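step: validate -> pass
step: tokenize input -> pass
step: predict -> running
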Amino acid sequence: MIDPITFEVLRHRLATVVDEGAAVLRNVSGSPSVAQSNDCNVALLTAEGEGVIIGRGIASHAMSCIQTAKYVLKHHSENPGIGPDDMFFSNHPYIGTPHQTCGVMVAPIFAGNRLIAWSGAGVHFGDVGGCEPGQVSIGARSIWDEAIPVPPIKLVEGGRLRKDLEEDFLVRSRTRVQNAVDLKSMIGAHHAIVGRIMGMVPRYGTETVVEALDRVIGISEAKLRSILREIPDGAWSCDNYLDYYDEKRMKVYACRLTLKKQGEGLVFDFTKSSPQARAVVNATFGATEGYILRAMLGIFGFAVAHCPAALQRIMRIDATEGTIVHCAWPAGVCKGTTSVTQSVWQVATHCLSQMLLSSEKYAPRATAVSRGHLILTDILGKDQYGSLFAAVIQECGLAAGSGAGVSTDGIDTGGVTEPEVAIPNVENNEFRYPLLYLYRRQRTDSEGPGKQRGGVGLSMAYMPHDVAGIPDVMIHTHGVTFPSAHGLSGGYPAAINRLTIKRGTNIAELFQRGILPGEMAEIDARSEETPAPFAHDRLAKGDIFEVSGGGGGGYGDPLDRAPERVADDVARGLVSRESAAARYGVVLNGTRADATATAAKRAATKAERKSSAAKPRCAPLSANGAAGPLVAGINEYLSIVQAPAGAVVRCRCGCILSQAAEDYHQCLAVRETAGQTHPLGRDRETPGFTVREFFCPNCWTVVDIAVVMAETEV
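step: predict -> pass
step: emit ->
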């Protein structure tokens, strides 16, 4: 057994080794998506391929390392064999990576003849081939229409790069120069990690290093099991929908999760999810697992830090092969990181937070969903110097609003839960690519309203610069027809994504007059259009592309938000005066909230809820029941308490809705409102959705919100 002091020294040393590997990965790559956005990660694994510590970049890259290392151990130990200084590369989504443009490299770490650990590194490539430039083969019918994946190959053998295999990978790509550098960046990260681990062996001994790796997992697992024992057993469900524009129509796929918690274990049941698509938007089982782990790291990171093995030891995933979350070969998956995997992340976050709300101790750690579906564009072509370029314009996705917490607002343009994921500087993108940004700023009214509001999202406009145009603009965006960033405890979902292109503008004339427009409305154009959310488009000189992303989900009834906080949001330009009144019931007098007018407005809003909502299907048991001992929480407003006749569901106002064993939703007033979708043009049908609000029939507080797609509802 390692003594506690030595273990703490080694634990911090191992974490530092991982940080160093990540720094080398970013610095060698130099690609804005890797070096600035941190669309990459590294991992340190046990000899069996369990994840001990991963970096603070995008977690799914590290999960791919775990899955790939386990595959190599199972299938390649004998042939071609695993030896010191070997490195295996793969971008195969049915083995490890979520999609083909994510590549990983894993390297065994030997002490003498003994395999003691693995290092892993993963990056996002701009292009790896396929029928369309960039990462998404728009219109693909199966994986055969997408970039052909590479199963794990021994790219580095005995410390020597296999040039034949490197060429086999690079020849597929339109961006082979950057891809070659990114391969070297992963090799460099491995040299850093392997070298540091091997430096620890002579000083501490092989057995001590191996035990330290195992102990990191064991301690994190013990902490997690202890937390789960304190949370009531139960089951929580959530649906999320994916809008996919294919074959000139919008299709909808449902991601349905029931999270079951019993004792120290969690079961993620996705068996009611929609059948798989033919291509593009599916998730393999491994990708689904990776995005569940992303959600769990965000929720339980305070206890397990960045140790995925601890999470994997207490969870099970039930998913039916042939569905959107567990597709069967040869279904295509080229949008595997930014399509239904985002739905998986969102429903997992929502259900885990619902679970935390049942515990008085851990309820403060619950959070609404951060950002909805991603809004993404790839641009490719030749720059003003004749060099090929490929860029992923993903700022609106990476800098979306964070979800609201129980006692805090979501972070404005705060993005996701991985601490080192960021967006590139405008100047860096303009230096690297033939682009000019007109603006990039926080988007007003994009938050999910609530007692604690979600963070606002990002809006930006850019245009070609110093070139005749950008010939390949690959638009691949979800979340343009209905909201997908769920609120929590009656908080509302965030805004949908929006795309607008103005063609043949007068921007050159405005520049000559010294005018830098701050709104699209200030720019005249030959035409204005809403591009299809999945399209191969182009931008000519003088065309302007505006991209606006959503924010994070809200927490709690917006009428419970402190009026002075709403006034501050308006003063900062995050919420409009109109929305302050309509969403939060706050009336402003100048820059301050008018207390009398606000009280009247909020009373009128509750009266309007009462008059417009349908009556409960079942009458509540009592309008004002005494509060007994707490059994479990449900959310901000509802709880299960002990009553003389048994456990009941009680609102904070005192209304006893139902027996705990009954469906309390039947005792809530319901209002259904048809959602307003983003217009996609006359030739593009968009599915309708309904926002379903549930009110306590006594105090008329909104206690739950659901976004429902009629065509997929169970």
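step: describe -> The domain at 4-222 is CATH 3.30.450 (Beta-Lactamase).
step: cleanup -> pass
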